C-alpha cells in the first residue's frame, strides 16, 4: 500500500528545529616562571567525500532539512503543518547505505532495497514495512540524470506511516560535498538550472511535486533569486491535480556558505502557499546548490503543507541562441532529407527516377566554437559510433545570406556544400526565435549515373531543449510561426522549388490534444510563388510529461493526395517555442498523376 493512502486525508504537524551548543572555560592564578606548554599535534581533520558519485569514506553529512507531519485525531480530524527539522544523514562506505535519524526514529536504506523501477532522476527505494509502520525513501542519484545531473549535491525525501494509520511524516533534506566557507564566491554571478521535488499533504489528497526553473546568484550582494514551474500529481490516482509557478528569494551569509530565505508556490494563481527555505552551495567552486523548504497554506486541495528540496546546477551552456555565446555541442538534431538525381547541365528532372534511394551524408550533431564563431557539422555513418566531420562553417557566404538566413559555403573538388541557419532573435526579419533554430545542409556531387548530379537537402532543427516539467498540467497554448523547405513536383523539365509559409499549432495540455495547419507556398527559381492552400494537422501523438524533452508527432494532410510526417519538440525553459521537421508527398498543381516530394523544417512561438 502506498504511504499516501495510509491516512485518508493529508496534513502535517511540524517538527521544531532543535539547536544545541556546548562550550566550556576555566580560570586560575599564575605563578612566576610557569613553563610555557608545548603545543600538541594538530588534530587530523575528519575526512569527507569530494563528491557523491564516488564516495570513499563514511560521513555524517551536514544538511538542511525540513519535516512535515499529518496526524489524525480521535475524532477523525487532521492536523497538518511543516517546519525545519534536525535530521541527521550518515553514509556508510561499507554497505553504500544511508541511515537517517530524526527526533522520533531511525532507519537505514541500502542499495539492494532499491526498486527495479527507477525514474530518470531518482532511484526509489522499495518500501520497507515493519511492526512500526512503512518507510519510503527517495534520493537523487548524482550523475545519472539526462538533463539535470548533480555531482556534489543530493536531495532526499523520507516518508514514514505508522501501522495504526494515525500519523504520517516526511523529512526532506539537501546534503553533499558542500563548498567551504572560504571558497564561497564573493564576486560575480552565476545562473543555475533548478529542479524542484517534494511531497504535498493536503486535507483532500496527497501529492508528489516536481518542477524546474532557474536560479540566479549575485555573489557580490549575496542575493539569490529563483523562479519556475511545478506540477503536483496525486499519490492516490496518479493524475495531475495542480500546476503553476514557484518563486524563491534568499540571502547568502556574509561570512559563511549558509543561505536563508523564503519560497512561494502558485502565487500566480492567487493561492497562498509560502514558507522558509534554507540551503548552501556545493562543490569546490559553488558549482551546485541545494536547499530544503517547508511551505504551509491553502491550495485547491484544501489546507496543508509541502516539504521538499530545491537543487541547482550551474549552467555552462548557452541560456539562449540569441545570441549563442558559449561553445556547445548540439546533439538533439531532428533531421529529414531528400536526395534527387537531376540533369548535370540544367538541374531539372529528366526522367521518373529523380528520387534517389541511397542515403546521403546528413548532419547528426553540430558544434558551435565560440572562439571564432565557427560551426562544425558532423555525421555518424550507418553502423558506426564515431562522429565524422562533414562541414566546417566559419565564413558566411554572401550569396546564401538574406534577412532570415545566414549561409556558409564550401567546395571540395566536385562536391559543393552549403549550410544555412535561421537567424536568431534581434537579427531576423521574419520570426524572432530565442531558444531554437533550424536550417538546411545541401550537398551537390556527381551521380553514379552519367549526365546526372546528385543533390541532397537535409532540413533540421536544434536548440535549448525544454523539460517536460515546463509543460502545464492544464490550459491551452497557441504557437504561430513559419515553415521552410524544398520541394520537387517530379515533372519532366521541372526544377526544385523553395518552400515557405506559415505554421499554426494549438495545444490543449490538459487533454493532450493538438490542432493546427500548414499554409505552404512554392517559390520557383525565378521567384514565382504558388500557394498550396491550408493543410491540416491530423492524428497527433503528444509526449509532454517527464524529464525528457517534450515532443509530438502528427500527419500534415495536403490538399489532394499525399501526406507529410511531422516531428516536433518544445524548446526554452518555459517551453515558449516549438520546432521540428517534416517530409512526405503532395500532389503538385497541374501535375496529373505525379507525386511531389517535400521536406523542410518549421518553428513557432507561443502567443503571450
**In total, how many beta strands?**
36
CATH top level label of the largest domain: Mainly Beta
Number of domains: 2
Classify the helix fraction into a percent range.
Answer: under 10%
CATH topology of the largest domain: Porin
How many H/I helical runs? 0
- Shape descriptor reads elongated
Q: So, CATH architecture of the largest domain?
A: Beta Barrel
- Backbone structural class: mainly beta
On the 0 to 100 scale, the average pLDDT is: 86
Oligomeric state of this protein? single chain
| Major β-sheet annotation | 8 strands, antiparallel, barrel
Task: List segments where confidence is low: pLDDT < 50 over at least 5 consecutive residues.
Answer: 1-32
- Strand residue percentage: over 45%
Strand ordering within the main sheet: 11-12-13-14-15-16-17-18
Radius of gyration: 30 Å
Distance between the termini: 44 Å
Keywords:
eight-stranded antiparallel beta barrel; 608 residues; mainly beta; elongated; 0% helix; disordered N terminus; eight-stranded antiparallel barrel; 2 domains
Question: What is the compact description of this entry?
Answer:
The chain has 608 residues and is mainly β. Helices cover 0% and strands 53% of the residues. It folds into two domains: 3-17 and 49-314, Beta Barrel (Porin); 328-606, no CATH class.
Q: Can you put this structure into words, describing what you see?
A:
The chain is an all-beta fold and 608 residues long. The protein has two domains: 3-17 and 49-314, Porin (Beta Barrel), CATH 2.40.160; 328-606, no CATH class. It has strands spanning 59-61, 63-72, 78-84, 88-92, 97-101, 106-109, 122-129, 133-140, 153-162, 167-176, 189-202, 206-218, 223-234, 240-252, 259-265, 272-282, 288-299, 302-314, 328-330, 334-343, 365-369, 374-379, 388-393, 405-412, 415-422, 436-446, 452-463, 476-488, 497-508, 513-523, 529-531, 535-543, 551-557, 562-571, 577-586, 596-606. The strands form six sheets. An eight-stranded antiparallel beta barrel has the order 11-12-13-14-15-16-17-18.
